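Bug report (template v2)

What were you trying to do?
Predict the complex of my protein with calcium ion.

What happened?
Run completed; filing so the output is reviewed.

Input:
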Amino acid sequence: MSRKSIIDDPQHGNKAEAFEAFDDIPTNPNLTRTIGDVINARYGRRDMLKGILGVSATTALFGTSAIIAPKQASAMSGKGRYNFDELTWGNDETHHIAAGYDADVLLRWGDPITADAPDFDPMNQTVEAQLKQFGYNNDYVGYTELEPGRGLLCVNHEYTNEEVMFPGLGRQDKQDFAGMTKELVDIEMAAHGGTIVEIAKDAAGKWSVVRDGKMNRRITPLNTEMTVSGPAAGHERMKTTADPDGMTIIGTLNNCAGGMTPWGTYLMAEENFHGYFWTETRDAEGKPDLSAQPQAASMKRYGVPGMWYAWGKYYDRFDIDKDPNEANRFGWIVEVDPRNPDARPVKHTALGRFRHEGAETTVSKDGHLVIYTGDDNRFDYQYKYVSAGTVGDDAAANSALLSDGTLYAARFDEDGTITWLPLVHGTGPLTAENGFNDQGDVMIDARLAADLLGATPMDRPEDAQPRGDGTAYIMLTNNTRRTAEQVNAANPRAESSFGHIIEIKEANGDHAATTGTWSILVKCGDPSIAEVGAQWNPETSANGWFGSPDNCAFDADGRLWISTDQGSSWGKTMKSDGLYSLETEGALRGHSKLFFRCPVGGELCGPYFSDDSETLFLAVQHPGTDGTKDFKGFERDSTFEDPATRWPDFADGMPPRPSVLVVTKQGGGKIAI
Ligand code: FEO
Ligand code: CA
Ligand code: CA
């Protein structure tokens, strides 16, 4: 999620935060679509808001077998497709894994990832050290095998929490960034981006880092040069002072989830890039004033400038008054070849510019590359990309598939149909009359294009995971801003604090199809509270239900796993974020079990299963930070000196450290088999 998740939560948020209108609030003005009106006319708004639609009408309309189930504490171990005894829910200072499994720390923020890297010293951080050490806030984790038992781990570092990262600082956005020196900003920049590091498994099945791995490297917004492909490459709006050709970009920002391609490259999704941009131009209320900006409409729709970080104080390119086009160069999908440390990463503009959560790939029936990617903002859209050509044996030719294809935005209709709307210049409303002079404009302003096409504003599309059979699962994490008037069939709850999961079945099982059907797999939250309107399989226990689905993955047997990020709202469930199995087929469809839970204040990212499903990588992001005022016995904000937990080291003076864990079954074998 983001460091500003707190703003959206009336119970826990600080409404006095500056620039609220420019960061984590909806920017989509196109909220007049009336899917909900049709449902309301048929079933009545009051009934729908009580959750009755979730029981009967949804089942009738979309054929889901799951129903609302206010049932607690059912003993489910041994039943279903996932063979493990579920954990007991809760929240404390450390992580927990189901019995019979190990969850070992593999990589922590600051761990050396090159042979010449210094050991981590939190009291004496330097940019030079951080550039050779594992970055902060690990999010996406991917793995590509070099040989059996040895391969490259690819990890995104989404953002930084200065209050627990640096001694004596506290939250800087609440104090006009007074303490942020250029040296600290540079360390923050070096802690963002990605890590590629070789890991290997020993004879006992334990994984460790290979520090002298030839392909080990850090990718950062400070110093990694990237090139640009696709319709916006070299576009007028991509040209800056430092790059008059619009073809070379320094770095990548806010890399959230991602994906691995079938040919072993690593896709990094640039999510909340807007937060890094800055302006000194303020209106009478002291808020950013865009009235003199020629691209003001676009900037507003994207939330630029977000003013989350002080980088614009020291780097002109992050100041929109000085280099307004720089903001157009972020919000893309970045492809990295982890096997070639000399290769420049590529920003593929054919996949559109928005707050990309992830980029999970599959191959359609006739060989086209298909990528599902969501725009994680309240009332934004689900997208899918289909390549023009087909996947073959040549890696370079395969990468070119990301430069030539069609981006679609999803419309979810009330009859259970999904229609994928192409973002193609010159078709429909995507013309010069509406401000789109070419396909580059359509991709740079993909949100504005999808607005005109009538895509369905969703409850924050996070990760989306396709399975080879033409099925995909979409995580809608929550949307407390949706009003009763804005409810629709695909986003069925007003003020949704807990989110839901949609299942898509593409027509004829073909991921390249432009139509399909959709249904709601689960509506999240506590099923024992009727007002929540949750929808789970009735066998789901008090441990098994969850809130705010975020990332997801399939294991080798095509079974779905969900990780959660409740942000600072976790106090609404009192459950830590964690990893859950989720049945998708048969009588147990919609049944979930808790497999792993995070230490307090952390969200769970990854997950990623090895091809043999004997190893599961998990990423615990920002331990000790989110919502620690609700942590019993602590009840205050964490700082470097006084954190809610010192996970995973629990050593005096050591701050909490975002870390990647490796999960294996004791005695070996496939996970949950
Ligand atoms: Fe970075 Fe949408 O979570
Ligand atoms: Ca996420
Ligand atoms: Ca995923």
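What did the reviewer find?
The pocket of MU-OXO-diiron (ligand 1) is lined by residues 1, 158, 256, 271, 357, 376, 462 (CB under 6 Å). The two ends are 31 Å apart (CA to CA).
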